[in-house]
Amino acid sequence: MAASKDAAVNKPDSTQAADKNEAAAKTAAKSKGIAVLEGLLGKESAPVIPLPGRNKIEPAKKAHWTARWLKKLRWRHAIIGASFLGLVAVPATLASLYMAFLAADQYHSSTSFAVRSIEGGVSSDILGMFTQASGASTVSDSYILMDYILSERMVAAADRRFKLEDVYATRGLDHFYGIGSALPIEDKLDYWRDMVDVSFDHASGIMQVTVKAFDPKQAQEIAQFIVDRADNLVNSLSLSARNDVLRAAQDEVLAGEARLSKARAALRDYRDKSQEISPEEGAKLAVQLIGSLEQQLTQLNADLATAKSQMREDTPRIRVLKTRIESLEQQLAVERQRLGTGERSPASAAGDPNSPDVAGRIAQFEELETEREFAERAYTAALASLEKARIDANNRQRYLALFIEPTLSEMAQYPSRLLNAFLVTLGLLFAWGIGVMSYYNIRDRA
């Protein structure tokens, strides 16, 4: 009975224990579900749910590895952020502030002109003047003019005229765009090429010059100075070319005159020695004389034949006729030799004006006369060329056609503050990005 009582007493206790165990199991299941939900939401306290086939990670090792990774990640990101701040953000901000508040205003003056060449006569209207203009020989002059504007000679002339160190002196705190003091000509040339821009259109032949300065009036004066110096250079080039042509024509005239004088002197010397104006006239007289002698000889031969038929050989008439025939034959031989039909003598072969050979004298006279005529023609042509060169020299063959005079600015166009700040920022960002990418590339390869 006692045992049954104890059993009756213990039965409710066991039921209560079972109920407690069931409640604890439900609580543990609920806690595990909450933990899984928190793991899905990304809470650090969420437990790692082991999956089949995956190794379990010990909580201590996982915590240590996570701490090391976060430490490295924070250190690397801190270095990248600091480099971006020091290499990009701060310099870009300083450059923007400099462009916004310190950079001095710059004004520009622009002018446009072209080198033109006039060929032929002078026209009375403007349209005719430009239709006669030829640009075949002005392209090289335009390039010469470009080099001259950006040369040390131009810088030296501008420095003597305006004192560039005073015109482009530092304005306020703007030490970047200002020029220094006591600079050599090479540094002044570099600064001049930054402040003066020259562009040339090969198709139209138009050249545009833009001058920048801190004062608009000074920019206009410098641009006008460049135009004046360019005009002087074009005029000097044209004058030099005209003088060269004129000098060459004068040399040709002097040479032709000397040659003509020499030919005339040789012809006069020949006439003095031969004592005749023209050997052709002497040849005509010699031909007439030979014809007359031949006619007389023919008549004497006929008379001799008639006398022989009536008289004996020893009669005085026949002897006289024979003597006259012999004399005529000798004289006829002499005249023919003088005319050149016989054998030439050594004197005529040597070209002696005193030679009795008429043909030799005619040949020599024709040679001298040909030389004189050719010298006269050459001299006449040289005189015509000289006269044309003088006419061309009176006209300006090349000139500077200025159709846009130097302008006067009313507002500052330079420096381009937003554009310069953007370009500086973009360049710094580009350089910084290349540096970061190079670092990661080397790190990955290592």
Q: State which percent range the strand residues make up.
A: 5-15%
pLDDT averaged residue by residue: 77
Name the poorly predicted regions: 1-12, 39-57, 120-136, 341-345, 347-351
Tell me the series of helices and strands, N- to C-terminal. Answer: HHEHHHHHEEHHHHHEH
Order of strands across the main sheet: 2-3-1-4
Number of domains: 4
Structural class: alpha+beta
Radius of gyration: 59 Å
Task: Describe this structure as you would to a colleague.
The protein has four domains: 15-49; 59-103 and 415-446; 106-250 and 397-412, Bacterial polysaccharide co-polymerase-like; 262-391. The two termini are 87 Å apart. Helix 2 packs antiparallel against helix 13 (417-445) and helix 4 (139-149) crosses helix 8 (216-274). By secondary structure, it is α+β, with helices and mostly antiparallel strands. 70% of the residues lie in helices and 7% in strands. The chain is built from 13 helices and four strands. The chain has helices at 2-41, 59-102, 126-131, 139-149, 152-162, 164-167, 185-195, 216-274, 279-310, 316-339, 346-349, 358-394, 417-445, and strands spanning 107-117, 196-200, 206-213, 398-404. It has a four-stranded antiparallel β-sheet.
